[in-house]
Structures are given as C-alpha cells and as structure tokens.
Amino acid sequence: MIKAIHTSVKGRARYKITGLYGALDLKEYLERSLTKNPAIIQAHANTLTSNLLVIFSPQYNYQQIGEIIHKIVSDFPQKQPVRQETKSLKPSRKLTKLDSNTTDQNQEHWHLIPTDKVLYKLQTSQESGLSSESAVINLNKYGLNVLSETELRSGLSIIVEQFKSLPVALLGVAAGVSLFTGGLVDAVVILGVVGLNAVIGYVTESQSERIINSLKHHQQTSACVIRDGKQIEISIENVAVGDILVLKPGNYLAADARLIAADNLSIDESALTGESIPINKSTAFLKGEDVPLGDRFNMAYKGTYITGGQGLAAVVATGTYTEMGKIQQLVGEAKATETPLARQLDEVGGQLVVISMGICGLVFGMGVLRGYGLVQMLKSSISLAVAAVPEGLPTIATTTLALGIRDMRKNNVLVRSLAAVEALGSVQTICMDKTGTITENKMSVVEIHANSRQIQVLDGDFLHGKQNINPYGDDELIKLIHVAVLCNESEISKSTEGEYAVTGSATENALIYMAIAAGVDAIALREKYPLLQTNLRSENRNIMSTIHQTHNQDKFVAVKGSPAEVVQLCQSKIKNGQVVPFDEEARRTIEIENDRMAGKALRVLGIAYRHISEYHNGNGNHYESDLIWLGLVGMADPIRKGAKALIADFHTAGIDTVMITGDQSPTAYAIAKELELNRNLQLEILDSTNLNNLTPEALTALSDKVDVFARISPSNKLQIVQALQGAGKVVAMTGDGINDAPALKAAQVGVAMGKGGTDVAREVADIVLEDDRLETMIIAVSRGRTIYNNIRKSVHFLLATNLSEIMVMTIATAVGIGEPLNAIQLLWLNLVTDIFPGLSLAMEAPEPEVLSQPPRNPEEPIIKKSDFGRITFESAVISTTTLAAYGYSLMRYGMTPRANTIAFMSLTSAQLLHTISSRSETHSIFSKEKLPNNPYLNAAITGSFAIQLLAIAIPPLRNLLRITPINLMDGAVITASAVLPLLVNESTKGTGDWVLGTGKQLLSRGTEEQGRITNSQYPIEGEL
Prior knowledge:
By secondary structure, this protein is an alpha+beta fold. Helices cover 47% and strands 17% of the residues.
C-alpha cells in the first residue's frame, strides 16, 4: 500500500510505503528506478520510517507520482535487479586474500597526490571508470576485495579448552593407571568428575558465544561503481583497484579510495579513527609527510559511513591492503594474555603434580619395605596421588565462574569465557575508548548563547543558572530553535505512539532533538513554512540557508553555519524582543563566546534569519545578507549517563582509568576534566605525535603516569595496552570500533559494546555490554573480585581436607597399622566432601568492602605462603582425631572392615564440618559479628551427610565401599572426632605464625597504599 502523507509543497511529496521497513533491497530499487524517470529529480527512501521522499518536476502532481511509485513497487518481485556477477567480472581463478599468486598493491601516499595524477597512476577515468577487461585484470592481479573472517570458537575448541589444566590432566593419568591395574570403578569415577567439569564449562561458554554472535549487524553486500561509462551495481568482493565508486548518503565505503569529486560530502569515520563528528570531505591534495588518518580529508576508507552529500572516489586499496585490513592483521598479531586465575590454578596444579609424585614414591617405597604386595601398594599409591589432587578443584572453579556468567547475563553483560569474569576482578588499569564508550557517539545540543545569556541544555531542560527557562516564554530562544528546525535537511516522522524518528546527519539531528525537547512540533512547523529553496554549504562557504513560504506570502530565510561567517552577514540582532542594530561590541562579544564554547570542545553554529517581501528564481545566496542574529548553538558528543560516577567508583576500587581517543588534545582534555579522570592533581595528556617518538621502554615507563592519550591510531592503542602490561599491570580495554579490535584482543579483558559496537570489536572481546551501559562494568569488577575470594576459600578448604587424607594414609602406612581407607573410599570421600561443600563456599555473598580495596597483586599466588601454616595446622587436627578414632576401632575390632568404616566416617564428617571453618580467615563461630547466612552451604553440608548415611544404609553402596553398619558407641566416637577439629580450628583463628604472616602482608599492603596516596599529592613535573 502507498499513501501520500505530505503534499503541501509543489514538486515535493512524502509517501508511506508498506513493506519498506527494514527492506534495503526495496529501498535501493525504489531510489534507482525513480531517478531514472524524467519526471523525478530526486528520491530518498528510509527503511526505518517506511517513508519515501520524492522531489519532482512541478508540472506533475503528487497523484501522478504516486501512480509511478505504485507501478515500480508492484514490479519489484519480478524486476528486482540482479547483482552483476557475470563471467566478465569474475577473475579467471578463485582468489582470496591468502592467494600467493596475487601482487602486492601499490602503497602510495594517495592523499598527497593531485586527482589527475591519481587517475593516471590507476589507469582509470572519472567519466568512464575502468573497462570490464581492466577490472578483471586488476582482480586477478591484486585479489578480491575480501577480508578474512575472524575465526570463531568452534564447539570442539570450547570442549578441548576444558581439559587444558594440569589438575584435569593428572586425574586423566590416574584414571588410565587405575584402568591398567584393574580398578575399573575407580577409573569410571575419576573420568566422571573430569566429564562433569567439561560439560559445565562447555554449556556455559557455548551459550555466551551464541548470544554474542547473534548481535552481528547485517553487512552491506553491494557497491555502485562506474564501469565502461555506466553506473552499475556489483558485489563488494568484485570492487577492483581503479574502480570509480559512486558515493551516496546511507552507504558504507566498499574500499579505500581517493576522492575525485565531492559535493557537500561528509563521512562518519568514528569506527576507524574514533572521531565522533562526521568529517567534511574535499578533493584537494594535502601537504606534509606524516598526516594522521583522521586528517586526510580527501580520502574515504572501507567500512566508514556516508552521512551526507555525494561524490566520486577512485579505489586505491582493496581487501587486506585497506586500513581496515591492516587493523585486522594487527588483531591477528595481537596475543591474548593469560588471566591471573588461570595461571595460578595451573601453578597449584603443577605443585600438586610434584607432591603427588613424591607421595606415590614415599608410600610405595614404605609399603614394599614392609613386605606389602607390589600390586596392592601400586593401587594404594595411585589412590593417594588422586587424594592429593582435589577432584573438585576444576569443577568448583568452572562452576563458580559459570554462575558468575549467569549473574552477569541478568545485567545484560555477556561473557565469552569463564576466565574473563575473574580477570576483570583483578584489573588494575582500565583503558577506555572515548567515542561510543565513554560518550554516546551522537551529537547533542548542550549549550546555547542567546540574548546575552548562557543557556545549558541538560536532559531536555533549558537552564540559565538554576532557572529553568520555558522556550515559549523567550522570543529569541524559540525563534532560534525554529530556525534550527527549518534550516535543516534531517527527515522527521512520528509513530502512532508519539515517538519521533529523525534521519540525517548527526549535527542536524541534534538540532531537531533540541526542538523536540523544547516542545516544538517540528513536523507541523515545516508544514506551516513550506520549503521553497535550499542553498547548501560548499567548499569555501561554510553556511547553509533555506527559503520558506509564510502565511502572508512573504518569504522567510533561515541561516546556520560557521559563526564567523554568519555574523559577518548580520546587520541587526534581537534584544528583549526588539530588533536593534548590530554594533562592533556585539560582534566582539559573540567572537569571545564562540571561542569560549569552542574551547570546551563544542561544535558551534551561528543562527540567523531575515524576512523578504519578494522572491525570484535567481541565486538564493542573494538573500544571505542583512540578517538578524539569533545566537550560538554548541553541540558535543555527550558523555554517557553514569560515566562520571563510574570513574569515581573505579578510583575508589583502586583501579586507574586511562582514556584513549582519536580526538584532538583540547577535546580530550575537556572530556577528561568533566569526568575527573585524573587520580593525581594534574591531568596528564600524551599526543600521538609525541608517542611515536618514544622508545618501547620509555612508553612503558610513562604509560602508568598518563591519564589521556589523544590523536591515537589503532596500532597506538595496541602499543599502549602492551606498554601497560609491560609495566606489570592487568589491563582491561573497552571499545566499540574496528580501530579498537587489536587492543581489545591483547588486553587481559576486552570489553565491547553490543548495540553500537562493530562486529569486529565484538568478535575479539571477552565481554560484551549488550545494552551499551558502561556502568555495568563495576558490577563485573565486584563479581570478579568476589569470585576470586570465594575460589580462594574453596581451594583453602580442598587443600586442608585433602592434606588430612594424605596425613592419615601416610602415617598409618609408616607406623604399620594398615590402610585406614581403601582406594574407592578415598575417591568417594573426595566426591562427597570436595565438590558440593567446596562449591557452596564459592557462593558466599560479597564482602561489604570488596569495592573499597585496591586490586590484588596479579603475581600473588592464590594460596600465599602465610596460608600454608594454617592449612597444615587444620589438616593435622583433622588427621589426629581421625587416627584416634581409627586407633579406637583397631583396639576394639582389629584390622577389619568395621575399623575402616569408623575411620572413613570420622574423616568424612570432620571434613564436612570443616566447611564451616573455611568461610572466613578471621570470623569464627565464636565471633560476635556473624557472617551472613549461606543457604547453599547449609544445603551442601546437610545433603552430603545424608548421602554418607545412605552409603551405610543401602547394601549395594555398602558393598562397593566395603563398609559395615555401626552401633551407637561407634557413632559417638565418629561424632566426637568430627566436632573436635571444628572447635579447635575455630578457637585458634587469629593466633599463630600464619596470622603474623597475614598481618605482615596487610601492613605491607597498607603501606603501599599510603605511599600511593602520598605520591598522588605531587603532580608529574614537566610535559609528557
């Protein structure tokens, strides 16, 4: 269905097209087909609003144009254009970026070469482009215009990664040896633990991978080029060096190209350079050897977005030779860094391997010397080796991190890998890309200067000091807003729910949203003052004017543009509702205000107007004189809500913040000051021109002293991250653009935006903020720190309980009182007392001070030297009471299964109760200040005791474990041997050498922090 919705201006109509929403093919087909019709001057379709704007010859009416549109839409399914994929456009062999038969492309400084020489070097023509034959030759010579896809994690690779740890490897070896020696049940149990760990990790990580991949944006697949003198549409992969690209608003660049024609052309390069404001392009060649990417105004780069105007460009680089291709190569070269927890768990695993081998050798040797059988001692030695390795360690770590991922997902934080959750908790420095991460990557009006007043625009309010101004009560302000709506090419539509949709350049959209916030009905205003003529800015004229019909047949001229140029055209201004002459003092005041606003990194426009009583078809610029000045409008890429509070939270948590941006230093400085980014008294900025002159060693030395890096390229971002890592920092990098990808991959934690981010950034990031809310990062930091602390508690518990098993078995063998526990009992004991109690410890609530402490030292082991004394003491207490119970059973029952049962039940019960003692290093059950309730721990202990009782009650399980029923006296002995270690261990918290060690560490940490605070009182001397 086609419905005309705006028809008041002759020769201009807007239609609502059913089926246009989201239909890019229909949009392209409509625009192409309509512009071929001689009755139509221009057509623009919008896939978001389903509107079609048509400018046509005045001799036709909107009904006739509607019929033309109807016919085109009706024919669309049958006559949908076929992308040009003929054999003449295809290379003679299949080419990829890796094809060794292709030739390296010519890497000239194209921005320094005049357009005529560019065309000559490329053997192409502005009018006719390449010939089909030349295109095929270039495609064969240089390769297809394709980039390698980022290799995604396959299901198999995710599974394999679950087995890449030493504890898991040792369990696998133990299972193999058990199977070899006839212990089939033992092997099955061990492999069951390993399999459970792999399943949990695989399910969690693959789910996150699927969600992140679903965020991919639809990619543009075709480009319009001139070949053989005709405009044709071809697949992007068939764009060749020398092709002439036809540039139109709403399209992405298919390749890197040198501009050879530009008519008011503006391109959004934020994804590549980080510059938030669209760049106005020209064709003039530049001078200078080292022109930054963002200052090459005569170049257009692959993947950037055309926001306005039109032009032609000669392709100078395709595929991997484009700037985007070079960034992708940097991504490939960047090495992902191992996270602290992964490294430390591997270290613990390595230590356990050494301990296990030592225990195996010791027990095996003692048993053989005492005359025990070789096979029997081999099985016992293997059982002890398995006991030394906490079977629950991999599962507890994996499950705890998986639960962390689940909780993060509730806050729209998608975590790709388990280790990334913990790594974010240990981050010491966060590098934040400015555009699209700290800021919203869209322009907003933030300040107006009108009628000699500074008016702040904040969340839709117009504030003069503390006074809230109603624009309709201020004649000059409301007139300024009306002119900003009329002198504006953005398209506006309104849904049935009252929501506005604005399509156009970022600057002009910001002016429309300002008017909407002021309560202006922008659509009705435009209908009241129909557009008659538009005079766009040009290369040497930085103003735009529009002429409108008024109700009394007079004409209204609306002007906006460079304040310096607009003010020169003004002869009067409005003061207190009256038009008064414009004197030199007023001009100086405006010049001062313009400089002040520009100094705040605002994009400033001057606004003016005039009335004229007659209109003719001459040059519209004739009316850009004798204007009436209205005021200045300042725009900026606004800082995201909550960003300033987030920076303060990071600083409270002891995390340094660094801003990395492609913007100029003044812009970066203004934003950093507003965010209070510096932790020291003086804000330090390092520009890329200085960065490039530094040696890697000097950059590493300076990196942790700099708050802001400005005018930064993608390779510079990678350098900065690597320099901070070289200084010993755990680094997180946030970003959303293509240019952030190498640094995102190299950082220990890469964080990308989900909505506004690019596919390339998301594919290499560890964490994706699905709704782009940066403040959710502090939740991730808190969760990461808590997970590490809780895993540490679990590891402490596992080592203490497993060491008690080793002590019991080793002492019994050495003394010659038999084996208190057999191999299957050791495995059962580890399954019952390791996994669920250990997991419940990992689910302890966060400590209140978790975000008020500095990050932990990444070199600090998960179990410190000061912990080993405490662990040994706790194990010794548990072992002593277990051996005492075993001694009682030996005296009463001899070396029988009954004696083994009492030892087995005593050790299991003592270990389960030890879970309570492991909840805190300082709080005990005797402390006045109680720890918060942990329902998971209560359930784990109760459930584990229930399983243990079932083992005695159910005959098949009894036979498997080789245990027997017990009487009340035996039960009393078991209870005493289990409760006594809990009471002893809880009463001794806060005493002993291990506590002194902890105290020394706390004192050291406090001194270090005090030094940090003291040093921050003195700013860095000199300029960086």
